[in-house]
Write a structure and sequence with these properties.
Strand content: 15-25%
Distance between the termini: 18 Å
Order of helices and strands: HEEEEH
Shape: rod-shaped
Mean pLDDT: 92
Low-confidence stretches: none
Number of helices: 2
CATH topology: Helix Hairpins
Number of domains: 1
Radius of gyration: 25 Å
Largest sheet: 2 strands, antiparallel
Strand order of the largest sheet: 1-2
Length: 141
């Protein structure tokens, strides 16, 4: 490996590092969304089990809850994208949230697989660069 190839390998290592950081950030965002949907599912299930007029604690984000009374436990508004929500039966709303949870879990699995591939490539290239660097150092002595 000549000096130019060594520079290229170091550049590739930096590119892998940037790619790994982006993958990690995407994974964190997916994990936060998964937690949000899991809380929503838990809340919907709790409301479905409750009775109209019953007082419940409703999560509002940031680990904060408000006391609320159940007005209806049979229907709920569910976001379907781009600021649009639909009135759905509670069972359908829970099923919709469960589907989204499944999609997020699949995406997290793919992100994890991508992370593993990039980490493996980084490790291989890093070992190769280290071995070449040591060989070059021994050649200078």
């Amino acid at each position: 490996m000549n000096e130019q190839e060594m520079r290229q390998a170091m550049g590739a290592l930096e590119a892998y590092k940037a790619q790994l950081e982006a993958i990690n950030e995407q994974g964190q965002l997916l994990q936060m969304s998964l937690e949000d949907y899991s809380r929503a599912k838990d809340t919907l299930e709790a409301v479905a089990k409750g009775q109209p007029g019953e007082e419940v604690l409703m999560p509002v984000g940031g680990s904060a809850y408000v006391y609320a009374s159940i007005a209806r436990n049979d229907r709920v508004l569910v976001g379907v994208g781009t600021g649009v929500s639909l009135d759905k039966p509670m069972e359908d709303a829970i099923a919709t949230v469960e589907v989204r949870i499944g999609e997020l879990m699949d995406a997290l699995k793919k992100i994890s697989e991508s992370r593993t591939v990039v980490e493996s490539k980084m490790q291989q290239l890093s070992q190769m660069v280290q071995q070449e660097y040591q060989r070059m150092q021994q050649g200078l002595k």
